[in-house]
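Action item from last meeting closed. Structure (245 res):
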């Protein structure tokens, strides 16, 4: 379970997140949609303290943190419950696909290299990259690199995986392979929060949808409620732009 209460983030005088609150049950997928610059990526980065929120309560699994006074020990405990998939892959360029997936198991979890390699090989098979185990990122397509990034996030078996617009840096023909990996994770009832501009994907994979506007939750509900019966005019305006494309 993940629960966010009154999350606020300022950058100087700019309030990027303005009292965000939501709850997500174990095994559910939350899609966060909204225009660029409305705080979607900042929300994910605040959840695992890549950005420190100014205030708010973050509760993941058995760990709860008060952002205003969180200690380093509390932040590290919270991060153990999450993993993140970035827009631009963030792979280690000097490590193979196998080594990239192994890294968090060895460095963070203290797993032996032998045990980590066995688990990493299983993950590479799940994401369809067993044949690329010894390939470096420079020899992988963007879609393959992002799948390795997803595999690395899976490796630590987190309570929630955070996806920051995972297809935004990909050529259109590579988007499908990444989305299919995420769909498979949803079928396995992995808890995930996904920021995305892929509206059809969000509709098909999410249990809950949040529409962010100006740092606030303007609309929240099931995919059917948000996409088919939006209550707010701002939501309707946003969705019309995608239906017109």
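Sequence:
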């Amino acid at each position: 379970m993940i629960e966010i209460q009154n999350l606020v983030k300022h950058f100087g005088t700019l309030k990027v997140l303005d009292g965000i609150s939501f709850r997500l049950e174990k095994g559910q997928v939350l899609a966060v949609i909204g225009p660029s610059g409305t705080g979607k990526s900042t929300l994910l980065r605040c959840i695992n303290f890549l950005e420190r929120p100014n205030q708010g309560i973050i509760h993941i699994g058995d760990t709860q943190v008060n952002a205003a006074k969180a200690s380093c020990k509390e932040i590290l405990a919270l991060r153990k419950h999450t993993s993140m998939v970035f827009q631009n892959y963030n792979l280690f360029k000097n490590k193979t696909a196998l080594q990239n997936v192994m890294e968090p198991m060895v460095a963070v979890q203290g797993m032996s290299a032998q045990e980590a390699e066995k688990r990493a090989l299983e993950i590479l098979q799940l994401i369809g990259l067993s044949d690329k185990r010894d390939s470096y990122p420079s020899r992988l397509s963007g879609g393959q690199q992002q799948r390795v990034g997803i595999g690395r996030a899976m490796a630590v078996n987190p309570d929630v995986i955070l996806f920051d617009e995972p297809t935004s840096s990909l050529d259109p023909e590579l988007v499908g392979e990444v989305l299919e990996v995420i769909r498979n994770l949803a079928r396995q009832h992995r808890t995930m929060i996904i920021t995305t501009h892929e509206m059809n994907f969000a509709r098909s994979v999410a249990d809950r949808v949040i529409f962010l506007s100006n740092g606030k939750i303007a609309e929240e509900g099931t995919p059917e409620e948000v996409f088919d019966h939006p209550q707010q005019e701002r939501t309707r305006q946003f969705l019309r732009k995608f239906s017109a494309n």
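Note appended to the action item: The mean pLDDT is 94.
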